[in-house]
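Model: Ready when you are.
Researcher: Fold this.
Model:
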Amino acid sequence: MLKPLLIEIGVEELPAVPLLKELKNIEKKYAAILEENALLCEFEFHYTPRRLVIYHAEFPLAQEDSIEEFFGAPLAVAYKDGEATPAANGFAKKCGVPLSEIRKGKKRR
């Protein structure tokens, strides 16, 4: 689903020379942030000395689903005598899931 989005940033009067030097980068930086978060779509950028405005006629309300795969320590390091080691617990914590949800896979080549 898409909806309009308007972002308006009010600031004290921006100095002209630094603002004009940075203007060419603002759109690129904003597009990079959108792309990094899987939300890249068309937008318009407008500015005055006291306002920066970004307008999306159609902005996605949600990102596309994605699958991420992470690889932890080898099983010989992650488990000792059938018990999880700090390496296994740390990996689960880093992934933000309980250790019980970590799947033990086969080696990939």
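Researcher: Now this one.
Model:
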Amino acid sequence: MAQREASLDGQLVETVNFIRSKTSQKPRVGVILGSGLGSFADTLEGLEKIPTESIPHFPRSTVQGHQGFLVFGRLEGVPILAVQGRTHVYEGHPVDRVAYVVRVMAELGVKKLLVTNAAGGTNPLFRPGDLMIIVDHINFLFRNPLRGPVVDAEPRFPDMYGNYHPSYIELIERIGLEEGIPLRKGVLFVSTGPSYETAAEVQMIRRLGGDAASMSTVPEVLVARARGIKVAGISCITNLATGLSPTPLSHEEVTEIAGQVQEKFRRLVRRVLVEMDRTE
């Protein structure tokens, strides 16, 4: 067995054993919470929080708006694992570390995953505060956490058709209608950051078919698909991208707008997680 693979397997065993020593909960559905959206985790019932900095081999989040906890709890009886504080490539973490949390989720028994993020709108029809169902992505990180020696639980060439499960896209659309929450649909373009895109790059993203730009999500989705975890995705459009916005962009604006949509975000995500558990 290659050294990298053996090391990863050993790290996962140590990480999972530590987590199981702190909680007996067995999550079936996971959610990764993006910038400014982490407070949703605190609405779980019977929650137990584990600081990620205490977990062996777990990467530490250093970004404002990412608190750094694994939160175990329930929604209407559904066991949930919420990630409060994802990590990013731009923080200096290797891409396999960024996606490590999903490998941990898989080892803990998670079969379904909702990924969320804050994103800049590159589609001129979008407005700050919109929620977008992710239907596909474009990976301009130029990094893939599946590169390297094959991990036993993951195929060498995982299929990327239906990354964001079609039945979940329909489910989120239906819940949005029932809850009176207007939703967009679009393709997520992901690059490394941390600088925001130039106006010329935004034009390129639009020509390539991207509707929103982010600096996260793709590594986690790639590992989830390799692990056979079904994925749904929601982006919070927190700003218009450079060239479409009349004002300079800032991370403070991102977290402020994310905070303003908390109520509808929580209503939507709560129902989505519960109904994902009931959907094949």
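Researcher: Key takeaway?
Model: Residues 1-6 have pLDDT under 50 and may be disordered.
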